[in-house]
Every structure is written in C-alpha cells, then in structure tokens.
Amino acid sequence: MRICFRPKWELLLSLGLALTGPSLAGDFNQGFDAYIDGDYEDAFTTWLALAETGDLSAMYNVALMYEQGLGVEVSKEQAVRWYTLPAEDGDISAQFNLATIYDYGEGVAEDNSRAIHWYTAAAQQADEQAQFNLGVMYSSGEGVSVDYDTAVHWYRLSADLGHVAAQYNLGFMYDVGRGVAQDKAMALAWYERAAGQDDSDAQYAIARMYDEGEGVPLDEIQARHWYELAADQGHVKAQFNLAIMHDMGEGMPEDNEAAIHWYRAAAEQGHLGAQINLGIMFENGEGVAASLVDAMKWYRRAADQGSAEAQYAVALLFDSGGGGIEDNVAAVAWYTLAAEQGDADAQNNLGAMFDAGEGVKENDAIALRWYTLAANNGNAVAQNNLGTMYLAGSGADEDKVQAHKWFLIAEKLGNDVGKQNREASARLMAVAEITEAKRQADMWLAEFEHTR
C-alpha cells in the first residue's frame, strides 16, 4: 500500500493592512510602498518602528520579513517573537505561519505540540491548509497520539472547503477504513472530487480501483483513462501501470511501442520495475530495435538502486559478452551482489564461476557453498550441480547419498539432467543408500512445499 499522506505546505502569506490611526497609517503605507518598490530594507525599518509601538499589523509584517529574509537576515527566532502577539490576537495568517515554523523546526527547536496548538487556532477559523496539516499530524502521530478519527474530522472540514490534498486523503481514509468504516463508494467520491482538480494521485487511485475491481466493476477501459490522465501529469506509478497495460494488451490491443514510451517515462523517474522491463524489451527487441547496450544501460540503473533482479541481469550480460564487453570479473561482482540478496539464479551462477574458475580463482568449497544456497532456494540447476559436487567429492567429501538426494530433488523440480544423473548414480549405490537418499529428498521436498 502506497503512502498517501502528503507533506504539509508552507504558505507565504500577503502583508496585513490593518491601520490604527492617520499618522500610523501613513507610516504603515510608507513601508508598504517601499515593499512594493522592492526596497525591503526601508520597508523593514519602517515597520519595525511601528511594531515596537505595538502595531499588530506591523508586527506581522516584520515577522514575515524575518522569516523570508527580506531586508534583514533570516531569523526564525525573531519571526516567532513578532508573530506571537498577532497570533494571540487572532490573526489567522500569523497563527498558521507560527505553526509551520514550529512544525518544521527551521531555525528554532521543532515543537510539534506548539505546531498543533497554532494549527488548531487557525483551523478553527476555517483555514483549510491548517485543517489539512492537522489531519496529517493526527494521522501520523506528530505532536499527538495517532488519532484517525480526529484526522478524518480535520480532513473533512478542509476537503469541504475544496482543499485537494485533503479530498485525496479523505478518500484514502475511506478506501482503507481508517477513522471511518471502509466505504469504497465514499472513497471513489472523494477521489473523484480531487481528480476533478487534476490531482494525479487521485486519478491514479481511481484507475487502480477500476483496474483491480475494488468497489467498482472491473473496467480496464476506465482504468486506462484514469491512468492516462495521471501519467500525462508525470505520475510514475500511473506511467508504469499504463506501460504494463500496453505491454500485456489489457483493455486494448498489445502495443509494445506505447509500452516502451511509458516504461521510459517511468524509468527516467527512477522506477525500478520500469527500468528492468525496459531493459528486457531492449534485450528482446520488443517494440524497439534489439540493443544489448541499451538493455545494459537500463539494467544498470536498476542494479545501482539495489535490485537483485537487475544485478543478475547485468551479471549475465557481462558473463555472456552481451552489450559488447565480456568481463567475467565484473560478472562475478554483480552475481555476488544479487546472490547476497538471496537471488537463487545468481547464487547458482556464482557457484559455477567459482567451480570453473571464471573471473575468480577456482574454489570448490566456495562453489559448493553457493550451490547449496541456491539449491535450498529451489534452483533445480544448482541442485543438480550440488549433486555432481558430492558425487565427485569436490569441495566436500564424496557422499553418494547426498548426491542422489539432490539429483532426485532436481528431477522432481523439472531438471532433466538431474534425472539422468539420478539414474547414473543409482548404478553406483546399494539399495539401502538409495532408500536413504529418497527419504531425505522426500523430507526436503515436503518442507520446501510447506515454506515457499
């Protein structure tokens, strides 16, 4: 489930103009004129003098200039000092800005409790951004205990005022049943309100509902429509899912060129699955001219992000010379990265590299270790290789029972060479040894079936 709660937004608010008398009004307007002309230092000096006499509007503007570093060096501490009196007097903008300073802790100690206090003050005056931020804080437990009911309360108030992120988050709360009873119809209604304001997250959420048939009839045409709206706005998951639909021909004729387009859009934003699938399409020439160089490029991007699948693909290309360069040392390095993450194919191939001394010094004991890991992860080729090592006494003492056991397991998992080796090894064994090997193989297979 994706994280949907959006970050709180910091708003730069307009300058106040409340005036307290003709003389002060003239001074205030002098500062305002200087501000409009871009003479921030003069505006700051003028308003500071007024603020020191107790003028609340000037105090707000001085605070704002300290916060933004206009005509004076940025000082969040001074901003807090000058925002406080207007905020206590009920100035909604001062309340909100004071809350954001405490919320983010920039230049002052982060204080979520005070942020909650001032957001609440502004929210009670119908500030939709403050209401939304309160919803986020109650949802995530910032400054308060997690309270989904209260989060829904604030999201609803903000959403009713048209706040698009609140509409989306309220839809999500109904979607998963947090703070309200799960209600897919209500989720869809709020998502649609946010989507009507071109919110790409909401468009993606609606697409997902139609794509999976959650709360609405399964409808691939509707799913495609909403994915396209979100994808056109750069929503990376929508781009990836739209690529999948074109790739697989879901709700439309298969279109590999369109799939390439959307995979590339998502891949360029760092989407692992898109990078891998783009690599596969370049490797196989699907929707594009086959290019192992381009395949390597996209596999490498995913591999550099830590994808074991991509690391294995990179290793294979180095191993086979795909992409123009055969480099067994590099292949071993990439197989190792994938193998250490538990990729069974990489573990088997790494075992084979040590077994044959390709890209690394031959070492039967290390080969046996990697074959064992791959075999226990269900790799039938490794199971056959492991049987061969035990039969020959390579990397371990010769053990016909262990060899026959692994040949049996490899055969059961569909490895034809394992079947041939099982038959050949049986001719070298006593009946009791074969019986014991079968017993051990049956136990391993039962456990494997139970745990996978």
General description of the model:
This protein is mainly α and 452 residues long. It is 70% helix and 0% strand. Among the domains are: 198-301, Serine Threonine Protein Phosphatase 5, Tetratricopeptide repeat (Alpha Horseshoe); 306-376, Serine Threonine Protein Phosphatase 5, Tetratricopeptide repeat (Alpha Horseshoe), CATH 1.25.40; 378-452, no CATH class. Helix 1 runs antiparallel to helix 2, helix 9 (164-176) runs antiparallel to helix 10 (184-195) and helix 22 crosses helix 24. It is elongated and about 105 Å long.
Task: Give the CATH level 1 class of the domain at 198-301.
Answer: Mainly Alpha
CATH topology of the domain at 198-301: Serine Threonine Protein Phosphatase 5, Tetratricopeptide repeat
Q: What multimeric state do the chains show?
A: single chain
| Helical proportion, percent range | 55-70%
Please tell me how large the radius of gyration is. 32 Å
